[in-house]
Amino acid sequence: MKEIVDLDSGSAATIFSFIKIPRDNPSEELGMVELENALSNAIWKMFDGVREEVAVRLGVDGADLLLTDARVVGIKIDGNQIINPSGFTGRELEILLALTMVRRDRFVEGKDIFEGGSVRAYLIAKETGFENSVYIEVGDDATTLFEIAPSGVSYVGDFDWGGEKLTNAIQDELGVLPTTAHGIYIKHASGGVSLHVKKRMDKIFYDALGEFVNGVILASRNAKSSNGSPSTVYLHTFFPVPDDFRKKRFTIGEKRVRFLTPAGSSDINVFAADEIHRRYDELNQLAKRRIKWLMPTV
Predict the structure, then answer these.
(1) Which residues lie across from 138 on neighbouring strands?
(2) Which residues touch 172 (CB under 8 Å, ≥6 apart)?
(3) 252: Cα separation from own chain's centroid
(4) In this structure, what is the dihedral angle of CA atoms 213, 120, 20, 50, given to the nearest 10 degrees?
(5) SS3 sequence, the chain?
(6) What are phi and psi of 14, to 5 degrees?
(7) What residues pair up with 159 in beta bridges, in sequence order?
(8) pLDDT tens per residue, the chain (298 residues)?
(9) Integer-rounded Cα radius of gyration of the chain
C-alpha cells in the first residue's frame, strides 16, 4: 500500500457522492462494458459538478486543481447494495464515488493523498448508514465541519478555533507560561486535579468553549440536510477533553445536542486498505485511467 498523505481541507478535497446512472434497458443483465461506461460517466458528472466549488475553497484556479484519485466504494442497483453488479438487472445504477482533488503545490507523486477529515466522516457514515448528521474535527487552531447525508459526505465549512484557545484562556486567567498552561489543561482534561481546581478550570474551559459553540452554529447553517439544526453531531478532537463535556447538551439551531464520540475507526489507513477496494479493483483501475485523461499533467 502506498504511503498516505493526510491533508487539511484548505489543501485537498475528498468528496463522497452517490452518482445515479439510469439504465437504458432495465431488463437486460448488467455487463462489464455497460458498467465501465457508467463509471466513466459518473466520474465526469461528479468532477464537473464540484470542481469550481472546490477550486474556490482551495483558493486556486482550475489550472492548479488536480484530480488525483477516484475510486468506487459502493454500488447499488435500484437502491440495493451490491458487491458484484455483473449479471444483475434493474432500472438505476448508483455508484458511490470518492474523488480527491488537490492543490498543485500540495501534490506528492507516488502517494495516496486524501482530505483526512472527509475520509474520517465517511468512516462514520459507513457505520451509521449515511444518516443525516454532522462530523466536526478540532485541531490546535481550526475547526472543520463535514456533512453526512444519504447522498454522500461533503465539506461544510471551517473557522478559527482550536485547542490553543483553551491553553491561551488558562494562560490569560492564571498568568502562567504557555507550557505551564498546557500542562494544567492536560491534567484538568484527564481528571487529575482537585475539586477546587476543577471548579475553576471548568469555568475557564466552558467560557472558552462558548466561542466554539457559536462557530459551530454559524457553520452548521451551510449543512443542507440539517437546515442548520443537526440532530446528531459527532466530534473528534486532536487533544483530550474533560469526560463530563460529552454529557452536556448544547443548543445548535433549534435543537439540544450532545457532541458524540465517533464509533469505530477514525484512521484513514483503514479506508485506504478497505477490502471493498480490492473487490472493485477492475473498476478502480479503470477509474485511475479516466482521471489521467481528465488531468493529463498529473
Answers:
(1) 143, 237
(2) none
(3) 20
(4) 70
(5) CCCEEEECCCCEEEEEEEEEEECCCCCCCCCHHHHHHHHHHHHHHHHHHHHHHHHHHHCCCHHHEEEEEEEEEEEEECCEEECCCCCCCCCEEEEEEEEEEEEHHHCCCCCEEEEHHHHHHHHHHHHHCCCCEEEEEECCCCEEEEEEECCEEEEEEEECCCHHHHHHHHHHHHCCCHHHHHHHHHHHHCCCCCHHHHHHHHHHHHHHHHHHHHHHHHHHCCCCCCCCCCCCEEEEECCCCCHHHHHCCEEECCEEECEECCCCCCCHHHHHCCHHHHHCHHHHHHHHHHHHHHCCCC
(6) -110, 115
(7) 143
(8) 678 999 999 999 999 999 999 999 999 999 888 988 999 999 999 999 999 999 999 999 988 999 999 999 999 999 898 888 888 999 999 999 999 999 999 998 889 999 999 999 999 999 999 999 999 999 999 999 999 999 999 999 999 999 999 999 999 999 999 999 999 999 999 999 999 999 999 999 999 999 999 999 998 888 876 666 678 999 999 999 998 998 999 988 788 889 999 877 778 888 888 777 778 888 888 888 888 777 655 5
(9) 22
Give the Cα-Cα-Cα angle 96, 100, 106 (nearest 5 degrees): 170
| Largest CA-CA distance found in the chain, in angstroms, rounded | 74
Contact 54, 65 (CB under 8 A): yes
Rounded Cα distance, 160 and 139, in Å: 10
CB 145, CB 43: distance < 8 Å? no
Of the candidates 184, 145, 151, 182, the one whose C-alpha atom is nearest the C-alpha of residue 165 is 182
Degrees, nearest 5: CA angle 105-265-84: 85
Torsion-angle region of 200 (φ positive above 0: left; ψ -120 to 50: alpha; else: beta): alpha
**What are 38's three cell numbers?**
457508467
Q: Tell me the three cell numbers of residue 4.
A: 498516505
